[in-house]
Each structure stands twice: as structure tokens, then as C-alpha cells.
Design a protein that fits this description.
single chain, 150 residues, alpha+beta, eight-stranded antiparallel beta barrel, 2 helices, 9 strands, elongated
């Protein structure tokens, strides 16, 4: 009787674990995520503001930024590392990302991003902080940015 009860409970626990894994939204960060980020991202509204109007993000964990969408000479470059990923109930992909100005160095990054990519993958919203990861995307935050994939 004890063996039968133990086996029944074990099967139930395993079934719950398998089912709950199917509903988990947190995913492991892979090279595919760096590929997903990569590309040219612009916002023409930023051409007349003191924020980066164009990002070129590369699969190798590096990026370049430009003052205007028409610029070809980068204004700054750096490295990034994706540290966490999840998908929300609407199919948007979220990331937490460390940013370094220039090459990645040991120690603290200069920026902590909370990034949201639309479920189509063509709209990128983020907020950057110098202290810790933001907890939400607040469109009224001074560091809120939105870009569109080219």
C-alpha cells in the first residue's frame, strides 16, 4: 500500500511539474536572443532631440549609436549582455540587459535596461537606469525610449 501511494504521489508531482513548465514564461537566454536584438533601430522623432536617433545592434553583443537617423559615423559604441528574458501574456518579449560604454569590463555596467519588444518584433521600448534595473516601462519616464526596426 505504501509503495502504491508513493508511486501515485510521485506521478502526480511529475505531472504538475511537466504541466507548469508548459506555462512558464521565463526562458533561458541564448544566442538566438542576440540575433533577435540585432539590426538597425530608429526613431526619426529623436533626430531633433538630444537622444540617440539610431541604434545599430550586433549579434556579438556590441552596439553603435548615432545622433540622427541619417548619420553614418557612430557617436558612441559599447557592449551589452542580456541577463534575463521572459514573454508576457500578449506575446511581447522582455529582457533585462547590462550596458557598458566601450568594451565590456569587469565590475558594474554603466547602464541597466528593461527592454520590451512588441510581439511582432518590430517595436522596441526601453528604460535605462544607472543604478539598477527599472521595474516597468513608464512612457513618462525621462529615460523612456522607443525605436522601430528597419
Amino acid at each position: 500500500m505504501k509503495t502504491r501511494t508513493f508511486v501515485s504521489i510521485l506521478i502526480l508531482v511529475l505531472a504538475v511539474m511537466v504541466i507548469s513548465e508548459g506555462f512558464a514564461t521565463e526562458k533561458k537566454v541564448t544566442k538566438r536572443d542576440y540575433k533577435f536584438y540585432s539590426g538597425t533601430w530608429i526613431n526619426e522623432e529623436y533626430d531633433s532631440r538630444a537622444v540617440w536617433a539610431k541604434y545599430e545592434i550586433y549579434r556579438d553583443g556590441t552596439f553603435a549609436v548615432y545622433n540622427k537617423t541619417s548619420d553614418t559615423g557612430k557617436n558612441r559604441s559599447g557592449t551589452y549582455e542580456i541577463v534575463e528574458k521572459w514573454i508576457d501574456s500578449e506575446g511581447n518579449t522582455w529582457y533585462k540587459r547590462h550596458i557598458w560604454e566601450g568594451a565590456k569590463v569587469e565590475g558594474h555596467p554603466v547602464g541597466y535596461d528593461l527592454d520590451k519588444f512588441s510581439n511582432s518584433g518590430n517595436v522596441w521600448e526601453y528604460i535605462e537606469s544607472g543604478a539598477d534595473f527599472p521595474t516597468e516601462i513608464d512612457k513618462n519616464h525621462s529615460q523612456y525610449r522607443i525605436y522601430y526596426r528597419q
